[in-house]
């Protein structure tokens, strides 16, 4: 009887070892699956980040080209305004220069006591 009890214990130990190995395999498979999901999530996140970065860079380049174009237009507009004001001042000075000369001559030639 002692030997049959010993075999029963031996069989129980074998079952426990087999169950432990099976549990370890299940745990390892779950770890591997988790690592694979994490890697996939990381890859997807990096792809989204790269796409977003490219989109922002494109928007930045568009804004940069728009403002550069505006800068050239602003310079041209300012040059036109300046030329227009210079022309206006010259024409006004030509128009009133005779009156100014007459007024200055009258002050210079008038003697006060």
From TrEMBL:
Coiled coil feature spans: 13-62
Keywords, comma-separated and alphabetical: Coiled coil, Hydrogen ion transport, Ion transport, Transport
Superkingdom to which the source organism belongs: Eukaryota
Pfam family, one: V-ATPase_G
Function: Catalytic subunit of the peripheral V1 complex of vacuolar ATPase (V-ATPase). V-ATPase is responsible for acidifying a variety of intracellular compartments in eukaryotic cells. Subunit of the V1 complex of vacuolar(H+)-ATPase (V-ATPase), a multisubunit enzyme composed of a peripheral complex (V1) that hydrolyzes ATP and a membrane integral complex (V0) that translocates protons. V-ATPase is responsible for acidifying and maintaining the pH of intracellular compartments and in some cell types, is targeted to the plasma membrane, where it is responsible for acidifying the extracellular environment.
Description of how the protein assembles with itself and partners: V-ATPase is a heteromultimeric enzyme made up of two complexes: the ATP-hydrolytic V1 complex and the proton translocation V0 complex.
Family: Belongs to the V-ATPase G subunit family.
Protein name: V-type proton ATPase subunit G
Organism from which the protein derives: Stylosanthes scabra
